[in-house]
Specification:
By secondary structure, the protein is of the alpha+beta class. The protein contains nine helices and nine strands.
């Protein structure tokens, strides 16, 4: 994927309108990338982890790391490409993907730098400030490894397609030709977690794009298979340590 941006002293900026269900298949860059949803929500998968990014978060992706980007709804991805961080820059030590906070100041600075007519001195000052503003932010990922056994794998793929499905393991067993006990053993041994927790993580992952977009909790929880909002919030807090609202909340110091 080649950015439709412009060459500048240190940073290349590209803007990518992404209609709903657009996917940039797994790929790599020879340079570092900061992927930001300047509008809408992005889902970025890299290093066997998945991040759902609202407009207040971006993901630093080091050079050479395979990743893919998906927009569940109409979004815009603004990407910053950096060949080499300046000596001493903290982000130069980020060897793995790292979520960063996008404050209002940082967002405005990115838009300021996305100007081919900016003079060299102002661009240099802007880039230096931008790199100083990149601050890591904790962001728990809800990773769901897939079982390799074809029977358990069929169950897993079906649940990824329809997370709200409430079939028991015995019910699934009748469909895929295995006992419920066998499926339970396979999920535990091949994903490292019991089936119930694996299904919970699938449901929470499915909810993240809608939560990031600000959809009502009642609708989101029902869509992914929870009968009550309280049950959904309890599961979310149990897995992430925070409520759904706090998961995406980012203080904007420049808001005053």
């Amino acid at each position: 994927m080649s950015p439709n941006g412009h060459d500048i002293a240190l940073v290349l900026i590209g803007t990518f309108p992404m209609p709903a269900r657009t996917r940039f298949a797994r790929h790599t860059h020879q340079v570092h990338q900061l992927a930001w949803a300047s509008s809408g929500t992005l889902t970025v998968a890299a290093d066997a982890r998945t991040w759902v990014l609202p407009t207040t978060r971006a993901l630093w992706i080091p050079a050479g790391v395979p990743h893919e980007v998906v927009a569940a709804s109409h979004s815009t991805m603004t990407s910053l490409y950096l060949s080499a961080p300046p000596p001493g820059a903290a982000l130069g030590r980020w060897a793995e993907p790292q979520p960063v906070q996008v404050t209002r100041l940082l967002a405005e600075l990115i838009l300021f730098l996305d100007n081919p007519d900016l003079d060299a001195d102002r661009r240099t000052h802007g880039e230096t400030l931008l790199l100083d503003l990149l601050e890591p932010v904790p962001m728990t990922t809800l990773d769901t490894p897939l079982p390799t056994d074809p029977r358990a794998g069929a169950v897993a793929r079906a649940l990824l397609q329809e997370p709200a499905t409430a079939l028991s393991l015995d019910d699934w067993g009748h469909r895929v030709g295995a006992s419920g006990r066998t499926l339970a053993r396979l999920f535990l041994s091949e994903t490292g977690m019991p089936f119930g927790r694996w299904r919970t993580l699938v449901r929470l992952n499915a909810a993240l794009p809608a939560l990031a977009a600000g959809e009502p909790l009642s609708r989101v929880s029902r869509t992914v298979g929870y009968e009550t909002v309280s049950a959904f919030v309890a599961a979310f807090r149990r897995e992430t340590g925070v409520t759904p609202g706090a998961y995406f909340r980012t203080r904007r110091p420049s808001d005053g």
